[in-house]
Amino acid sequence: MALSRGARRLAAMNRGPVMQSSVPVIDLTPWFGGEDSARAAVAAQIDAALQSVGFFLITGHGVPVELRAQVRAEARAFFALPRETKQRYAVTVGGRGWLPPGVEANGYAEGTATPPDLKESFAVGADQPTGDADVDGYWFQPNAYPAEVPALKPAVVAYLARMRELADELLVLCAAALGLQQGFFTRHTGHATHTMNINWYPPMSLAGDPEPGQFRIGPHTDFGTVTILDREPGRGGLQVWTEQDGWEDAPYHPGAFTINTGDLLAHWSGGRWKSNRHRVLPPQAEAPDEDLVSLVYFYEADHDAVIESLQPPIGKPNSYAPVVSAQFLKERLDAITIG
Fold first, then answer.
1. Are the CB atoms for 230 and 68 separated by under 8 Å?
2. How far is 276 from 186, CA to CA, in rounded Å?
3. Euclidean distance between CA atoms 240 and 227, whole angstroms
4. What does R_g of the chain's alpha carbons equal in angstroms?
5. Is-contact 116 102, C-beta < 8 A?
6. What's the pLDDT score for residue 40?
């Protein structure tokens, strides 16, 4: 009898002994409700993780699993639509709508020419205009939701609100980790740019056999401050680069979010924190029917924020020049765009 998708995933998760991961799981419950010493201990764990590997998982974050499941279910309904229907919402990197296969190759961000990433995405983001047409036309575009899946919009709008709240809390936690004032980072996120890609990684039966060097997402670093990832477990899943062992499967914990530092926050920290390489493996021959949906929320800063790198004793010795957030991010987004 054929196994269901859920049974196949469970089998994949239990396929052998699990090695200790370099990526820690951090419970935020003491941060939200503990005494000062307990809050400081959480902040210290965050600092250690960002210095060592640039990734950690969080539990105790308070985001309902039901909301995440609803977004994923409605997104699957969209991705299941005929291509000609999805084409009405087609955009390229930086746009709001459907990113078809073939428009993005994340490996280019680190200078590696790779085949296009094996995925489709539905992209949404910050849509409260500033009044500057040039700024709004790129960073604060209106979101375009598919009429064919009417329940997607309310689910995504509710999810984005929770992600914005959580991202700011993580930046408050980051400030505490460095012994800085609570608003050190969030004073520059009052009208922050942010995007969310709902990524669909189709099965091999639809995507075809991967080309040499082709991934669901090629090796890259993220570009902003913090990334909040809600992922499904799978054989063709997330890997994180480690100095000790090279590529390592990222741990999966039901209910947890995966958090990582982006290039902008690494720059801001004066190189104290890593913006680490990661990738999503291509579909695997032993799991040809596997398809996964990831919710990837990229938080940044105010488009015109001038980011000055921290110096010792907090940051490492550096001569990093100040950067403007939007210019810093746009250079990186252009690098991964095909066509």
1. yes
2. 22
3. 14
4. 19
5. yes
6. 96
Alpha-helix residue ranges (DSSP H) falling in the chain: 5-13, 29-33, 36-52, 65-79, 83-86, 133-139, 152-177, 204-207, 263-268, 325-336
Check: CB of residue 159 under 8 Å from CB of residue 67: yes
Is 131 exposed, middle or buried, given 0-12, 13-18 or 19+ CB atoms closer than 10 A? exposed
ω before 313 within 30° of 0 (cis)?
yes
For the record, the structure tokens of 150 come out as 């009417």
Q: What are 111's two structure tokens?
A: 């200078």
b/e for 167-192, b at 16 or more Cβ within 10 A?
bbbbbbbbbbbbeeeeebbbebbebb
* Residues across the chain: 339
User: What does the block give as tokens for 7?
Assistant: 């049974």
Q: Give the whole-angstrom CA distance, residue 320 versus residue 264.
A: 12
Question: How far is 200 from 163, CA to CA, in rounded Å?
Answer: 19
Q: DSSP 3-state assignment of 248? A: strand
Cα gap 15→33, rounded to integer Å: 37
Distance set, CA 328 to CA 127, 274, 305, 323 (Å): 20, 17, 10, 6
- 10-residue stretch averages of pLDDT, the chain, 339 residues long: 36 42 94 92 98 97 96 98 97 93 82 87 96 95 97 98 98 98 97 97 90 92 97 94 91 96 97 96 92 97 97 96 96 84
For helices 36-52 and 152-177, give the axis angle rounded to 10 degrees: 100
CA distance 125 to 156: 10
Q: Evaluate whether 193 touches 300 at the Cβ level (below 8 Å).
A: yes
